[in-house]
Amino acid sequence: MRRPTPLPPSGPPPGADDEAPAPARSGKRGWRGAAPDGNGPEPAADPREEQVSGPLESAITEPIDLPVRPTPAPIWPIVPDSDPAARVTDAASGPSEVSRDDSSAGEPVTTPADQPAEGAEAVGMREVWRAARARRRALKSEVRRFTARARRRRAVWLGSLAAVVLVALGSVGAAYSPLFAVETITVAGAQQLDAAAVSDALSSQLGAPLPLVDESAIKAALVGFPLVESYTVEAQPPHDLVVRVVERTPIGVISSPAGYTLVDAAGVALSTTQTPAPGRPVLQVTGGTASEAFGAVGHVLRSLPAEIMSQVTEASATTPNDVTLTLGGTGTQIVWGNADESSNKTIALAAAMQVRPPDTVSRYDVSSPSAVVIQ
After folding, report:
1. N or C, fewer C-beta in 10 Å, the chain?
2. Are 252 and 280 in contact (CB under 8 A)?
3. Are 213 and 233 in contact (CB under 8 A)?
4. Alpha-carbon distance 315 to 301, whole Å?
């Protein structure tokens, strides 16, 4: 800051006549034109010095207005859009008064930008929340517009799933209701069995829903029929229950003190009569039905075709390797051997019986199917 230039005096200051004149300056640097000792001629007056003549104390000074550097505009706070209430509140309130304390400038300076505009009114909280609600409603409307397709697709999937679940529940409920109760029991596959007797034994299942048929009770009822080898149960909605049985195949009769017992290949007794069953060979097996010889005899008899089986009147074996069959009428014997290669032996026997009928032969030996011996 430069030193202010004094103004020229408009007149002698008050009391100037009473004051003593200022002493002359001395030193190495004196007044221009003056002798060093003060005895020389008086120096000429300088016009420039006339303007500042007089003592400095008598100069009149005035305050000078210093240029004020403009205060930078305040930086408004950035408020996220998610909080419009805070943004509007901050904008309405504005920054506080900014003052500059400069000892050299004098009084604080207040910028016009910090002063509120004339006629401006403070924004109330009700208007702020109203604006926030309007913004939320607009945002929600936009979100619903952009997600309409996804919502429709989700509604279709949910509707389809609900329909499937409803159909499944309805089907299960109907199946376990009296609408699908058993009203008719049919026995299929019975040839030697009495189908009516089997149906009566299964009458306990009448009235039960088809999915709730008790198979253990059906098994217990069929155990009383020895001719039943296996069975299957089929439910035929809405009211039919079909039981398919596979009967045991009798292979012959065994003579005992009680009579003649009809047995199958497993040795299961099917029935007992006082006379041999017609068309069934008499079994002479050492060791009974539990022996290996009986198993070999049963396997051989089941492999015979019907035209040969009908001619057999007796089957005997002491071991599994000496099975022998006897044809009725002629008494011709068939040496079979063991039960191995029974299918090949059957083919060889049929060919030999065509070449040499049984009434002309006493013995067929097919124990080796590749070399049949006829006697």
Report:
1. N
2. yes
3. yes
4. 8
Q: How many Cα atoms sit within 13 Å of 319 on the Cβ side? A: 4
What is the phi/psi pair of residue 179, to 5°?
-65, -25
Angstrom CA distances, 251 to 162, 302, 310, stand at 60, 7, 11
Distance between CA atoms of residues 87 and 326, nearest Å = 116
Q: Is residue 268 classed exposed, middle or buried when 0-12, 13-18 and 19+ CB atoms within 10 A define those classes?
A: middle
How is the chain split into domains, by residue range? 123-175, 178-247, 250-374
Judge whether 280 and 253 are in contact, CB under 8 Å: yes
Mind listing the pLDDT tens digit for each residue in 17-53? 444 444 444 444 443 444 444 444 455 555 444 444 4
**Residue partners of 9: CB distance under 8 A and separation at least 6:** 53, 54, 58, 59, 60
Distance between CA atoms of 30 and 38, rounded to whole angstroms?
A: 9
Cα separation, 226 vs 271, in Å, equals 8
Superfamily of domain 178-247 in the CATH hierarchy: membrane protein fhac (3.10.20.310)
Q: Between the CA of residue 136 and those of 84, 146, 170, 217, what are the distances in Å?
A: 10, 15, 45, 70
Give me the residue label for tokens 């026997």. 349
Say how far apart CA 220 and CA 209 lie, in whole Å.
19
**Three-class SS state of 139:** helix
* Distance (Å, whole) CA 352 – CA 333: 13
Of 346, 342, 307, 313, the C-alpha closest to 327 is 313
Q: What is the CATH number of domain 250-374?
A: 3.40.50.11690
Q: What is the pLDDT of residues 79-133, one digit of tens each?
A: 555 555 555 455 445 444 444 444 444 455 444 444 544 444 555 788 888 888 8
Instruction: Assess whether the region 178-247 and the region 250-374 belong to the same CATH fold.
Output: no
Q: Give which of 215, 200, 206 is closest to 178, Cα–Cα.
A: 206
pTM score: 0.49
- Specify the pairing of strand 240-247 against strand 184-188: parallel
First to last CA, the chain: 157
Task: Kindly tell me the sign of the dihedral angle through the C-alpha atoms of 297, 303, 308, 309.
Answer: positive
